[in-house]
Design a protein that fits this description.
Layout lengths: L8 H20 L8 H5 L3 H4 L1 H24 L1 H20 L4 H12 L4 H12 L2 H32 L4 H20 L13 H24 L4 H21 L9 H4 L2 H29 L12 H6 L2 H21 L1 H21 L4 H29 L5 H29 L1 E4 L2 E4 L1 H23 L16
Antiparallel strand pairs: 1-2
Length: about 475
């Protein structure tokens, strides 16, 4: 079966990309609000952090599950389910200041991250072969573009409007995206046969919840605490049982034999490190420029200025996504990913020596963002070269999951470093400059290791060939 050409490929791409940007924006909009939320919700800061943690958890769990469901029951149908979940979550957050309700709303929002891998798979099914690589490059980069624009947009809303406004905006745009998808995006006729792997889904969910809870809450609970050790132990117990079952079931949620192919394995490991390096840039930049002048390196910038520091990176991502596709078409996505990781590492080298100057900070952060855009554009092309066309949503969902795990690990590492390497100045305890430099070294090293992993991916002679025959 060959790919059926789409009637309006540009409209389909625009519709799906708008969905990707929206769900990515939604992931980061609470970040600027976190310092204010304990007072707004009458809650403890540790409890408020669940507004980030729960989104991470549900995104990690539902991305591979909905990807597999899309391959089996229809990608457009499952995409709409994810968008409806995002709208419901936004409405809950927009209409309440009760922390428990907000956490439930953020959980619904997190499930919508599956929109991106589902959109990539729809593009592969519906677009002519010559349009696939450029289109998936744009769709994949929406994960980074939305995150880069989400924080600056949220800082403006927090500064000049009621904080519920940003959730009302997300809900309204979500409804608009649902209508656009219904009107423009066709349903693919490609399906994966078999039954949905319920036990595999439960096992993967249990593993991810245990792992990500331990990673994301370990700093707050204490790395040697009973809760942290218990959740890590739970993950270690579940994963071999899950692998044993998946290797023996007829229709596994994750085809581990395919995932173990070097082309898939090394791409996913590189994706994890790229996600780590990308998130370190976002987490450190806004906080660095807000540090008080009394620290000796801080700039004392406002929350709005700190958010705007990430805006040039978002613009760079938008501009470079098509460029990434051209590089992949000319040299192959393997070369593109290695180049992108090198660019990210170079950005962190810049940041090592320019962390006390606003313009230089923005320049370094923008270079890292540029590398992220190129990397995120190349990753799905590498995955789709290596898996059958009937498994693209699940495979891209797993790749997106690896990026999410990388971000979760990064969040834990950054929080630990910035809360440990501290000093007191004028009665105010804050991270030292060395703490930020340590973060940059770790993130730059992650990007360098990603280059090595990328070079281990088997090279292909014709990187532009994405259409496969299913027998």
């Amino acid at each position: 079966m060959t790919v059926r050409p789409a009637a309006h490929p540009r409209l389909i791409l625009a519709a799906l990309a708008s969905c990707g940007v929206l769900v990515s924006v939604m992931q980061t909009i609470v970040v600027p609000l976190l310092p204010e939320l304990p007072g707004l919700t009458h809650s403890k800061p540790a409890d408020v952090s669940w507004l980030l943690t729960v989104t991470l958890l549900t995104g990690a769990v539902f991305t591979p599950l909905l990807g597999r469901a899309g391959d089996m029951y229809g990608k457009r149908k499952v995409l709409l389910v994810a968008l409806v979940s995002m709208v419901l979550g936004s409405l809950l957050c927009a209409t309440s200041s009760v922390l428990a309700v907000l956490v439930v709303g953020r959980a619904f929002q997190g499930a919508a991250v599956a929109v991106v891998p589902l959109g990539i798979s729809i593009l592969r099914d519906e677009l002519p072969a010559e349009r696939v690589i450029p289109s998936i490059a744009i769709m994949s980069s929406t994960l980074g573009v939305g995150a880069a624009f989400g924080i600056p947009a949220a800082t403006l809303v927090v500064e000049y409007a009621n904080w519920h406004t940003m959730f009302w905006i997300c809900a309204g745009l979500g409804v608009l995206d649902i209508l656009v998808v219904l009107l423009i995006v066709p349903e693919s006729k490609l399906r994966t046969s078999g039954r949905f792997d319920v036990l595999g889904a439960l096992g993967l969910s249990a593993f991810l919840v245990c792992l990500l809870l331990a990673v994301s809450k370990g700093s707050a609970w204490g790395w040697g605490s009973a809760a942290t050790i218990a959740t890590f132990a739970g993950a270690l117990v579940v994963v071999p049982l899950w692998v044993f079952f998946e290797l023996r079931t007829a229709s596994p949620l994750v085809d581990l034999r395919v995932s173990a192919r070097p082309a898939v394995l090394f791409t996913n490991l590189a994706a994890l490190l790229i996600g780590f390096a990308f998130y370190a840039n976002s987490l450190s930049t806004a906080q660095l420029v807000q540090e008080p002048v009394s620290t000796g390196y801080g700039l004392g910038a406002s929350i709005v200025v700190s958010g705007l520091c990430l805006l040039p990176g978002g613009v760079a991502m938008v501009l470079l996504s098509p460029v990434s596709a051209r590089i992949s078409a000319a040299r192959g996505p393997r070369f593109t990913l290695a180049f992108a990781a090198a660019l990210m590492a170079a950005g962190y080298v810049v940041r090592l020596f320019t962390s006390e100057n606003l313009i230089a900070i923005v320049a370094g952060a923008t270079v890292v963002s540029a590398g992220t855009a190129v990397a995120y554009s190349a990753l799905p092309a590498l995955i789709m070269h290596a898996v059958p066309v009937t498994e693209t949503a699940a495979a891209n969902g797993l790749n997106t999951l690896m990026r999410t795990i990388g971000q979760a690990v990064c969040s834990a590492v950054v929080a630990t470093v910035l809360s440990t390497v501290v000093a007191t100045h004028a009665g105010h305890t804050a991270p030292t400059l060395d703490a930020y430099l340590i973060v940059f070294v770790i993130a730059g090293t992650a990007a360098l290791v990603a280059i090595v992993l990328t070079l281990l991916i088997p090279a292909r002679r014709k990187a532009a060939v994405l259409v496969e025959t299913v027998t």
